[in-house]
Specification:
The chain is an all-alpha fold. The longest helix is centred in the last third of the chain and has 22 residues.
Length: about 130
Amino acid sequence: MDKELYDKGLVTRREVLGDAYVDRALATADDFGAAMQEMTTTFAWGWLWNRPGLDRKTRSLLNLAMLSALNRPHEFKAHVRGAVVNGASREEIREVLLQVGVYCGIPAAIEAHRLAREVFKDLDVEANPSGA
C-alpha cells in the first residue's frame, strides 16, 4: 500500500462523505473487508478524486449518474450528500437524474430520485432540527 496516497485519500474521503460515514466504514471492516477499504481509500479517494482533470462537484455528479445506473442505493445516498458538500445544487442533481432516465431508463431514475429526496429530507432536518 502507498501510505501517502492512502492518507491523502482518507482526507478527501472524509471531506466529501463526512467523518461519521468514513468512521463507520472503517470500523466495520473485518479481516475480509479491510483490503477493500484500503483499496477504495487509496485508489478511488487518493488517486482518482485528487486528479486535476475534474473538480469535485463534477466528479460527484458523474458518480450520481453511474451509481443510479448501476442501482447502488447505499453508495448513491452517500454520494448525494457528497455532491451537496461539493457544491452541487438540488437542481443540478435533478438534471443528472433526468439524464439518467433518458439514457439508462426511467426505473433507475425514479429510484435514484426517491433516494435523493430521502437524503434532502435528512439534510433539511439536520440544517433545521427545530423545524422552524
